[in-house]
Amino acid sequence: AVVSTQSKQWYQRRVHGETDFITNILMLHIISISLLSSLVASQPTQCCYSKMVGEVNYTLVDNMDTSEWGCKDNCVYATKDGRKVCFKSGELAVTCQDSSSGGWPQEPQVESNYTARGEMVDLDPNMKGYLVGSGQKVVIWSTDIFGITGENSKRRRTKEWADFLAEEGDYTVLVPDWFRGNNMPVGSFDPTWVTQVTNWTRIESDWKNVVLPYLETKMTGPLSIGLIGTCWGSYPVVLLSRFNNIKCGISMHPSHDKLIPTVGQNETEVLSQVVAPQLFMTEGGVADSVKAGGIADEILGDKITFEEFNDMAHGWTVGGDLSDPDVARDVEKAKKLALEFFAKYL
Predict the structure, then answer these.
(1) What gap in Å lies between CA 204 and CA 210, rounded to an integer?
(2) How much is the pLDDT for 186?
């Protein structure tokens, strides 16, 4: 491995016969790899959002000028322990683990002309949410990167799902705008934006100081709360599931396994704090950590259930093409499983 660093203070140590420079100010590790020729040809300027180099998984966290370190492109990745890396050419094999040729897993988009039954409400002067239903039990829906406000939200069936759960399950469903109007730029994927909105300190504060107080003013009696999220939304689902007032959590085509290391957290530590039963509904080609036998299974044990939809692509529940009979079949299956899980635990 070839390692470079910027620092006023550093020291040197031996790791498996290779030189590793450690800094207490700024580290940028440059790891030698060998890109598959097909990958080089198919994405000369794109970055995989998640890729395996040798036996180590890396997640995209930034796009910056890496010429100072002689890297092959401007893609900057993080390891699960928070180290920042870019890559030179070398001998290790690399596999792009995205469901598309590069970047965040490819997100299907739909033109939704659905007429929502609920209403947009002010959770506080700067935070909106979508509210539907009048049941005594509450479902909190956390969106994917398309959000619940702005132009991007029209590319999703999020409100349709919320209305379905409210009617079929007799729940009050709230979709908070965790992004607080800071929506993803239309037509582009920005890893810097993803890092900004994936902020547990802010999400936890909004949960305790905005969302819960709002629910307490709307509901009578003790709150019984279930969580559900798609893609990015699995991050708040998994992290909020540490609280005792959460009865259960559902993550559909989850992405928390990529987001957690992106923001410098540890997946094992995060999962170890989960107390509420979980259901993961995954698409084909996902990382082992969100499937049976992976790290979530090892840590959560009988608190987690897995359903694999291996014929589906990322985002199918809220963005898949319903004219495709296979997609329509699996969207209906996902709805049925969600209702059954909520009925069991909520």
Answers:
(1) 10
(2) 79
